[in-house]
Amino acid sequence: MTVEELQAQLAALGLRLPESDHQPLLGMIAEIERAAAQVRHGLEMSDEMGVIFATDRLNGGAS
User: Fold this and answer.
1) What pLDDT shows up at residue 61?
2) Helix, strand, or coil here: 59?
3) Which of 7, 31, 38, 54 is the most exposed, having the fewest neighbouring CB atoms within 10 Å of its CB?
4) Is residue 29 within 8 Å of 6, Cβ to Cβ?
């Protein structure tokens, strides 16, 4: 995400931040996006390997 995209997103929410907050916020957003990509990858791999989690049993997913 670029600074311009961040400003557009903030404006859409009706928010304005000082310029000094943009870079730290962009860093946090990048870290969240990396973590989300890792989780998605892990879920895809677990689907491919047919892993059954304990929560699947609660929902009937293992039957």
Assistant:
1) 55
2) helix
3) 54
4) yes
Residues in the chain: 63
Strand, helix or coil at 50?
coil
Contact between 26 and 6 (Cβ < 8 Å) = yes
In this prediction the pTM is 0.61
Q: CB of 33 within 8 A of CB of 39?
A: no
Q: For the segment 21-55, what is each residue's pLDDT rounded down to a tens digit? A: 999 999 999 999 999 999 888 888 776 666 666 56
Report how far Cα 45 is from the mean position of its chain's Cα atoms: 17
Tell me how far apart the alpha carbons of residues 6 and 10 are, in angstroms, rounded to a whole number. Answer: 6
Which amino acid appears at position 35 of this protein?
A
